[in-house]
Structure formats: C-alpha cells, structure tokens
Design goal:
The protein folds into 2 domains: 2-256, TIM Barrel (Alpha-Beta Barrel), CATH 3.20.20; 311-379, Orthogonal Bundle (Arc Repressor Mutant, subunit A), CATH 1.10.10.920. By secondary structure, the chain is α/β, with parallel strands linked by helices. Helix content is 41%, strand content 24%. The protein starts with 5 loop residues before the first strand and ends with a helix. The strands form 4 sheets. It has a 9-stranded mixed sheet, with helices on both faces. Strands 12-13-14 form a 3-stranded antiparallel sheet. A 3-stranded antiparallel sheet has the order 15-17-16.
Length: 381
C-alpha cells in the first residue's frame, strides 16, 4: 500500500533478561555470534529487495529484544546494505531501541557513526522500586545517565514509560511524568501496563498475585492526566500511546498506522508487502535457531505469507489509522472495502462526541480514542 510509506523493521531477538510483563519475541542468550547474525540479516535484505525493488525507503527500525546489544559494526553493515538495495528518502529515519543497562557513550557514538539518527530508550519507570517490580536491570540513575548520553549523541531521542503500575496513584504518576517531560526532547511513548497471557505477570495475576493494579476508574484518571500534561508540555498524543512535537513523530511507526508497506526481518518479525498487485502479510519463524536454520536450508526466514483481501486491508487500515490524531481517509477505506461506512453508525458516534467527520477524514475524538474497540465494532459491520 504505497500511500502509507515504506519501512524496514529489523528484529534483534536477544535480551540480558526477560522482563515479566514482556510478550515480545525476546530470548536470553549467553553468547551471540554477531557474524552469523549479520550474514543472516544481509541475506534477508537481499531476498526482499529483489521482490520490492525501486521503492523509496522512509525508515529503518532496529527493535527487539535489546538492539543496543548489537555491535555497532553489525548495524553499520546492515545500513550499508540498505543503502545499496533501495533508494532512500532524503530524511530517512533510522531508529535503534536501547536499554539503559546497555548504554555506553562510546557505543552510542558507534551507532551514530553507523548511520543511526534516532534512539528510543526503554526507561519504563523513574522509581527504583518499580523498576525492580518490572524486572528491569537498570536503576533510575542509570536511566537518567542513558537519556543524557542519548541527547549528547543524537538530535532525536525518545523514551518509554509504563504507567498504571502496582500501587501507583494519580499524584505519583503526575510527579513521575512531570520529571519525564523535563527530560524529553521531541517524543515520549507512554503505555498503560497490560497483563498479557503467557508472561510471568500473566501467570502471577492468574494465581491471585500482582496486587495493587488500578481499577478502571483510576486507569481512566491516569490516562486523562497523561493527555493533559503532555498536551501542556507541547507533546500531544499523535497516537493513543505516543506523544510528540510536530517534528518529532516517529516516521517508522506512522508507516504502520497509515497502512504502508514494511519489510519485517528477524525472528518473529511481521511485515506487509505489496508485490505483483497483491498485498501480503508476512511472518517469520519465532525461534532464533529455527529462523537461522530456515535461512540456511531454504534461503528465507519467512514462516508464512498470506494474501490479504480488499476487505481485510480496509479493516486493518481503519483499525490502525483511527489510533492516530489525524484519523482515517474515508475514501481510501471505501475504495478498499468497496462499500461505504455505515451512515447510521457514523451519525450516532458523531452525535455522541466520539468521532468527527471533516474534510473526508474520520477522526476519533479525545473521548473516542479510549473506546476505540467499540467504535470499530460499530463501524466494521
């Protein structure tokens, strides 16, 4: 879907430790053969570039896992291949995720010299006790040092925080977020804690543990406070959980939310590719060793490739774009779906103050975005 942009996601699957709330495809490994992994990534870039040649690449994102465990030379070699295989936008955004415990000034300078121009630091909390509860390996002091180092090396710096944590009240979060806003430059990612099945937190919660989580009303208060403080600081929500200045929005994540094409390489990586007039959802093998073995034996790390129907593309576009403050292009949805959005549902949702309809765009309001699933239920009939 070319009108949403084109990005590359590189998944590095390794971490120093598995966080109890994490449901990402991450693995703890004592030794990592950087040369073998580099060869695998280069092979995948070569394979996909032959399928989608001539595209203009808008963004590259090194995610994980903990990509700041990658050697800077590995990152440099991947980016060199990217520049050889695709045309790149003049303002190509290259982001690398980092954990404070693996941040060193020299290493960050190495990533900068390799071509990385944006970093996202996984801070998660600015209270030492809560960092321990979240299974993080760093302290608040290390997080603050990592942010300072990042600002010294990169013009564009983002960091993540998790709120609605155990025993966290409104005043607690107000104090923590206010501090975060003094440290932020152009972007903050702020996520409510979600207890996912299959995680250590999920198992603990099922046993009756994980006490002190906020109820629905407190969760709503924390969300509303987040919006108000960030708006006042000049970092409004451009997406449900992401806040930025006008120039600080993540171009890579906008490719996802605007329904663009993106290549996903690495264990567990997903992608969306338009090839030969069709649009495909791609998946990769989850296990790092299985992914490497598949590459060795078949020349591809993909485990599945499924053609998406027009209605599936339309529904996915609406689900993703309504997360954004800019909303969805109604004509684009209707072109894909080959039908109009239900007029009665649009009228009810508009009159209820949950959406606006202006200049051909459907936008979830501040009231509507927290109940996005209900909007979609009414619109996708």
């Amino acid at each position: 879907m070319r009108d949403g942009g084109f990005g590359l996601y590189v998944h590095w699957p390794f971490c120093q430790a598995k966080c109890p709330y994490c449901d990402f495809n991450s693995h703890v490994a004592e030794r990592i053969d950087q040369a073998a992994w580099l060869a695998a990534y280069l092979s995948e870039i070569e394979r996909v570039a032959t399928e989608v040649p001539g595209r203009v690449l808008n963004s590259v994102f090194f995610g994980g896992g903990t990509p700041s465990l990658m050697a800077p030379d590995t990152v440099a070699a991947i980016l060199d291949a990217v520049h050889r295989k695709w045309r790149v936008a003049n303002d190509l955004e290259i982001t690398l995720e980092a954990n404070p415990s693996s941040v060193e000034a020299g290493r960050f300078r190495g990533y900068r010299d390799a071509g990385v121009n944006r970093v996202s630091v996984g801070v998660q909390a600015l209270k030492d006790g809560d960092l321990k509860r979240l299974g993080r390996l760093h302290s608040v002091a290390e997080a603050l040092a990592a942010i300072e180092i990042a600002h010294s090396c990169f013009d564009r710096v983002s960091f993540d925080l998790i709120y609605a944590r155990q025993d966290q009240g409104v005043e607690d979060w107000k104090s923590e977020l206010s501090l975060a806003l003094t440290l932020a430059a152009d972007h903050l990612s702020l996520y409510q804690l979600t207890v996912e099945p299959g995680t250590a937190f999920g198992a603990r919660h099922a046993r009756g543990g994980l006490r002190g989580l906020p109820d629905e009303d407190l969760g709503a208060d924390l969300y509303n406070l987040t919006q108000a403080l960030c708006e006042a600081a000049g970092l409004p929500a451009y997406e449900i959980s992401n806040h930025a200045s006008d120039w600080g929005q993540s171009r890579h994540n906008l490719v996802y939310w605007r329904g663009g094409d993106y290549v996903g390489i690495g264990p567990g990586a997903h992608g969306r590719l338009s090839v030969g007039g069709a649009r495909y959802a791609t998946e990769s093998y989850l296990s790092p060793q299985q992914w490497l073995e598949a590459l060795r034996t078949t020349g591809s790390g993909e485990s599945a490739r499924v053609a998406l129907s027009s209605i599936e593309q339309a529904e996915e576009y609406l689900m993703m774009s309504l997360r954004l403050s800019e909303g969805a292009d109604i004509a684009r949805f209707e072109r894909l779906a080959k039908r109009a959005l239900p007029a009665d549902a649009l009228g009810v949702l508009r009159d209820s103050g949950l959406i606006t309809l202006e200049d051909g765009r459907l936008v979830a309001t501040a009231m509507g975005r927290p109940v996005l699933n209900e909007l979609l239920r009414r619109l996708l009939v």
